[in-house]
């Protein structure tokens, strides 16, 4: 038990020591979302800014008024507002893919790595991470697809009985099992990514194999750590929503912004905590091989 | 000689007619199912049915004895009958319309054998005239679909004289579909609606017996129903009327008998799973036994369902008139069935879930309120739902808004959950908005452009039109008019003009200008504040320095009638010194301009400041402020941003 606690706390120590990464990623997340919401915001301002009817949205939240707003022809089609948001979400994903190697290197280091080293790690590993990502999507897609199909079939079968709660609980149980299985796959590929960066591994299949071996050997320990942190994330989300509802007056845009963004920052932090936990596990498990993180050599032109 | 011949012909005719009127026939004057010592309706029919349900085959075999009292004032030799279970066949009119436009969420992409339903006449006897089984004809009065078998007609050998009686003995076999149009089976549940041959209505000098259409369902005469249902003993049964006996049979079945007075339809349900919650509502005509038939998983909702039922009944009793029946059965159908939200006399279906939160009023509570409302607007005030659907669904939707607003508050009568609210009024208006100019209210139900137009106009538009009418004649007057309409036309078949004239009579106003546009027309109402300006009187002076409260302005306001619907409106202009001015505009021109010269600038303008008009197509343009107020849009944008961020994080969480 103490070993498990150590892994979580070791991850926590690493993540707290490197808070700047979470902050930067959060800023990126916020800025992208802000750009993604620009179309929606412009359309809403155009209709609401001079209308007294808009007060129904400010002092409370009248769903009917919102639906009417979205249905107005001058608001435009909803996809015109939702597509930019989706595109910027994809951009954030790509940014995470690109900059995560630098973060992992920083997490594995006992000192603050220079900016050049951070970006060098990002540059050297970008294609490797793309390949790891492709492997991940294949594995997660196949396993997730099979599980999803199986649980869906079960839920459909349960739906044919007269026990109304059975389909719900079947889906709930299926969802939980899928979450655990996908978490295991995530751990596997988190370790693979860590291996890619810290070993400067060009053959990503070797890192994926190493990640698989380590995950299999230490499944319980790693899974408990990841799930525990995920539960913390869930608690943050619930508390954030409750706080938003309880203490933020309906008309306080600033209050809603602060509570909402604080919640999202902490949520993002929990994912970095998981990554830091994987790095702590990796470094601890392989310290006989890697005494300290070697600076990645600068590219020298021939 | 010629006169003698005519006399002879008349005597022969009378003789034939007299011979055709079987002795001893009468419609029973029973009152055991109502809180009244005398019958409440002019009873035209008496149905006596004995049905045996086969739970495995989802089929039913029954005998029906129908006594018909000819109150039409003329001899009748032709009788049409509804056979609505035949609608659930691939080539029926109902199915064609459903395939073309969708009906209640179903578009029948692929024919499923489980959707098959049938009502097969095994034998048809007219007492005293013989067997007519081979002479039955399917007719299709509404379209040229020769494959539609939802209406059949029989020509008698001898006509039924005015005030005479005729008795039909019918044997039929029903095959129920997997629930469609709120009838049929789902797993081991069954709802028997539209299940027996039902005679049409002689109305305005002709038979009114429409085919079964995608959106229209009922029109029938009042009478007495005595129905025996034989089902397996494990079934829990509920039905229209009062239960008069429940006897176990040696073959593992039981026969439950029901009696209904002054009703015009009969429905029943059976399922082994129902749990019964009994309650009583004390109405102004006497106690009403409430029987709430719940799915076991929904037992936690029992008290809530009883509460909304009683709250609704209390308001209807107080506002519109008494509920005279001794029972009301509220059915919670099998989850996943298409049987939820349906009305039959003294028998309604709601539907809920085990998780329905207290603040979600739009679920089972709204449904129960709505279906109970039909006990008045369809059940007792038995309008022709085929031809005047708005008088059934729409008037009911209007009273739904009134009742739900009264119970839960106007801004939260649909939803009041986690700081998010929605009101019935707004929900109803939105229902109408998307189809505002497509069809008028006064239109045959099966001739609307599509299901959206049917729903948006008959339900939505009627409700907002009547809500807006309150602003023209006053809320109290409107309530009095509804009360008068109910009392005057209960247990009869009023027309749209009966309703409209009652409102005019009670209000003492000529409302044709309103009804012609709102009921008979498809004009759309949309007023907007076109623009405003506040220009200093001394605008030309180079050294002009504007100072609040001292500088004099010429203030102009333009109001524009964008839509075709002409209605007098009020406009409120607020100035930055706190002054308010209210203007009345008759709306006859396309636009109007108001000009003021004051030491104040315009702060805001609002059309219909008391929000009396409920069907303005765009409420956002009904007001304009001089200064922009970005907070509402910022609030929404903030929500949007947070949701986008969260989605982006989730994506990155799982993929990187």
| Quaternary state of the chains | heterodimer
Gross geometry of chain B: elongated
How many β-strand stretches of chain B?
32
Give the end-to-end Cα distance of chain B, rounded to a whole number of Å: 109 Å
Q: What's the total count of β strands of chain A?
A: 0
How big is the Rg of chain B?
A: 29 Å
Strand order of the largest sheet of chain B: 5-4-8-2-1-14-17-16
Q: Estimate percent helicity of chain B.
A: 25-40%
Stretches of chain A where pLDDT falls below 50 for ≥5 residues? 288-292
Strand content of chain B: 25-35%
**Residue-averaged pLDDT of chain A:** 90
**SSE string of chain A:** HHHHHHHHHHH
Number of domains of chain B: 4
Fraction in beta strands of chain A: under 5%
Helix run count of chain A: 11
State the helix count of chain B.
11
Q: Return residue spans of chain B where pLDDT drops below 50 for at least 5 consecutive residues.
A: 1-20
The biggest sheet of chain B amounts to: 8 strands, mixed
Q: Averaged pLDDT of chain B, please?
A: 93
* Distance between the ends of chain A: 52 Å
The gyration radius over C-alpha positions of chain A equals 23 Å
């Amino acid at each position: 038990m103490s070993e498990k606690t150590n892994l979580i706390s070791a991850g926590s120590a690493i993540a707290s020591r490197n808070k700047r990464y979470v902050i930067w990623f959060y800023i990126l997340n916020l800025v992208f979302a802000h750009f993604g919401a620009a179309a929606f915001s412009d359309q809403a301002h155009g209709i609401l800014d001079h209308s007294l009817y808009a007060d129904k949205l400010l002092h409370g939240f009248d769903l009917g008024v919102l639906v009417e707003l979205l249905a107005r022809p001058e608001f435009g089609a909803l996809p015109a507002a939702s597509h930019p948001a989706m595109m910027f979400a994809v951009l954030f994903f790509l940014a995470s893919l690109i900059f995560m190697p630098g973060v992992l290197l920083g997490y594995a280091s006992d000192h603050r790595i220079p900016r050049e080293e951070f970006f060098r790690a990002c540059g050297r590993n970008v294609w490797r991470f793309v390949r790891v990502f492709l492997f991940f999507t294949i594995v997660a897609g196949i396993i997730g697809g099979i599980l999803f199909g199986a649980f869906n079939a079960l839920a459909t079968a349960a739906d044919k009985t007269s026990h109304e709660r059975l389909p719900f609980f079947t889906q709930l149980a299926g969802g939980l099992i899928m979450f655990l299985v996908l978490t295991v796959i995530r751990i596997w590929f988190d370790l693979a990514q860590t291996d890619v960066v810290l070993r400067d591994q060009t053959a990503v299949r070797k890192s994926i194999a190493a990640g698989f071996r380590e995950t299999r050997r230490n499944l319980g320990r790693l899974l408990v750590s990841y799930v525990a942190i995920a539960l913390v994330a869930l608690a943050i989300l619930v508390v954030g929503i409750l706080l938003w509802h309880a203490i933020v007056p309906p008309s306080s845009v600033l209050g809603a912004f602060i509570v909402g963004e604080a919640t999202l920052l902490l949520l993002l932090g929990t994912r970095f905590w998981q990554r830091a936990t994987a790095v702590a596990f990796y470094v601890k498990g392989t310290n006989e091989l890697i005494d300290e993180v070697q600076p990645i050599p600068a590219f020298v032109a021939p | 000689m010629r006169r003698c011949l005519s006399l002879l012909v008349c005597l022969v005719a009378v003789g034939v007619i007299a011979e055709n009127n079987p002795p001893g026939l009468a419609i029973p004057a029973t009152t055991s199912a109502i809180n009244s010592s005398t019958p409440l309706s002019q009873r035209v029919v008496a149905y006596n049915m004995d049905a045996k349900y086969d739970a495995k085959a989802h089929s039913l075999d029954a005998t029906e004895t129908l006594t018909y009292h000819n109150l039409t004032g003329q001899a009748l030799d032709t009788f049409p009958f509804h056979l609505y279970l035949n609608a659930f066949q691939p080539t029926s009119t109902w199915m064609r319309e459903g395939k073309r436009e969708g009906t209640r969420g179903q578009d029948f992409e692929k024919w499923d054998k489980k959707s098959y339903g049938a009502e097969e006449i095994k034998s048809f006897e007219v007492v005293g005239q013989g067997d007519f089984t081979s002479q039955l004809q399917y007719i299709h009065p509404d379209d040229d679909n020769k494959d539609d078998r939802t209406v059949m007609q029989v020509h008698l050998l001898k006509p039924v004289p005015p005030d005479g009686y005729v008795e039909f003995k019918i044997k039929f076999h029903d095959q129920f579909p997997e629930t469609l149009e709120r009838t049929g089976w789902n797993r081991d549940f069954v709802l028997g609606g539209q299940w027996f041959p039902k005679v049409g209505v002689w109305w305005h000098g002709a038979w009114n017996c429409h085919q079964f259409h995608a959106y229209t369902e009922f029109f029938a005469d009042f009478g007495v129903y005595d129905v025996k249902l034989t089902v397996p003993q494990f079934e829990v049964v509920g039905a229209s009327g009062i239960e008069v006996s429940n006897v176990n049979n040696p073959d593992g079945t039981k026969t439950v008998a029901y009696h209904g007075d002054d009703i015009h339809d009969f429905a029943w349900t059976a399922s082994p799973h129902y749990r019964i919650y009994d309650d009583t509502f004390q109405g102004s005509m006497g106690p009403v036994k409430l029987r709430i038939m719940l799915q076991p998983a929904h037992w936690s909702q029992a008290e809530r369902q009883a509460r909304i039922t009683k709250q609704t009944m209390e308001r209807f009793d107080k506002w519109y008139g008494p509920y005279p029946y001794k029972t009301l059965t509220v059915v919670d159908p099998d989850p996943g069935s298409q049987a939820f939200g349906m009305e039959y006399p003294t028998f309604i279906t709601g539907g809920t879930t085990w998780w329905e939160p207290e603040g979600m009023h739009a679920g089972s509570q709204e449904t129960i309120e709505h279906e109970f409302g039909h006990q008045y607007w369809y059940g007792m005030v038995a309008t022709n739902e085929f031809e005047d659907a708005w008088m059934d669904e729409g008037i009911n939707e209007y009273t739904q808004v009134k009742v739900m607003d009264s119970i839960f508050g106007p801004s939260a009568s649909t939803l009041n959950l986690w700081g998010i609210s929605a009101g019935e009024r707004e929900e109803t208006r939105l229902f109408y908005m998307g189809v505002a100019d497509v069809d008028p209210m006064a239109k045959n139900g099966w001739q609307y452009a599509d299901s959206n137009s049917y729903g948006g106009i008959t339900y939505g538009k009627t409700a907002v039109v009547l809500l807006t009418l309150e602003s023209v004649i006053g809320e109290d007057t409107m309530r009095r008019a509804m009360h008068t309409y109910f009392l005057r036309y209960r247990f009869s078949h009023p027309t749209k003009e009966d309703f409209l004239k009652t409102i005019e009579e009670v209000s003492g106003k000529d409302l044709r200008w309103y009804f012609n546009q709102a009921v008979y027309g498809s004009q759309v109402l949309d007023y907007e504040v076109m623009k405003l300006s506040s220009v200093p009187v001394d605008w030309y002076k180079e050294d002009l320095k504007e100072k609040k409260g001292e500088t004099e302005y010429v203030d102009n306001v333009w109001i524009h009638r964008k839509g075709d619907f002409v209605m007098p409106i009020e406009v409120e202009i607020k100035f930055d010194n706190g002054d308010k001015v209210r203007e009345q505009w008759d709306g006859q021109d396309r636009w109007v301009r108001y000009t003021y010269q004051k030491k104040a600038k315009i702060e805001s303008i609002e059309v219909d400041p008391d929000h009396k008009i409920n069907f303005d197509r765009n409420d956002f343009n009904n007001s304009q402020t001089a200064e922009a107020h970005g907070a509402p849009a910022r609030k929404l944008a903030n929500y949007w941003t947070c949701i986008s961020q969260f989605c982006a994080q989730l994506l990155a969480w799982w993929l990187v």
